[in-house]
Amino acid sequence: MQGVSDALLALFLKNADTVGWWFDSGLEEIVWTDNAASIFGLPHSDAPDILSLFGERERKAWQEAIQQVQHGKGSFDIELPCSRGKEKKTWRVKGSFSHKIPNLTVLGTAQDVTEIKRLHHDVERNHYRYRNVIESAMDAIVSVDKNQLIVLFNKEAERVFGWRAEEATGQHLNILIPGRYHRSHKTHVNNFLVENGAHRAMGRSRELLS
């Protein structure tokens, strides 16, 4: 079913943010898949001038990576910034050696990772803010995973329980609970998980005497 395979591949390339390319050693140039011009926001042509979107340093890095692959140094995976007017983007370019087609020595892809990198940056920034809020809280805050292993232990928890965060992290929550309460605590937790699931705060207070 070669016709079906070709049609599906064409449909994928049309709707994906990834383009394919290969280096033709006979022509000494990069050849692009049909969707490249539209993905890069250029007028469609048989030979879209995609490399002009990249700066001289980025074009050189791409060229050197291709040469390394041609000399038998495996594959490459690099991130290159490019711009079109005021629009700034980052592309992840991959390439590897190919010996199946004459003159086609390097086969690769280029993917727009601008949004992925932005989301990653937002997650990192929000995580940093979250950690700052937790660390500056007036209450002792301890977070555990589904196995009741401590994954977060703030400064106030260090003062209250007398454990340093690096000592408490990874330990079972029982290290903070007096031995005579272990059984009742286990029962309480098991009941809670059955009734409410593992991803909600307990919302109940317990007074423990050491």
Write up what this structure looks like.
The chain is α+β, with helices and mostly antiparallel strands and 210 residues long. The protein has helices at residues 2-15, 36-39, 56-70, 114-136, 155-161, 165-168, 182-196; strands at residues 18-24, 29-32, 75-84, 87-97, 104-112, 142-144, 150-153. The strands form 2 sheets. The chain has a 5-stranded antiparallel β-sheet with strand order 2-1-5-4-3. A two-stranded antiparallel sheet has the order 6-7. A hairpin with a 5-residue loop joins strand 6 (142-144) and strand 7. The chain is elongated and about 80 Å long. The model has no long low-confidence stretch (mean pLDDT 78).
State the gist of this model.
With 210 residues, the protein is an alpha+beta fold. The protein contains seven helices and seven strands.
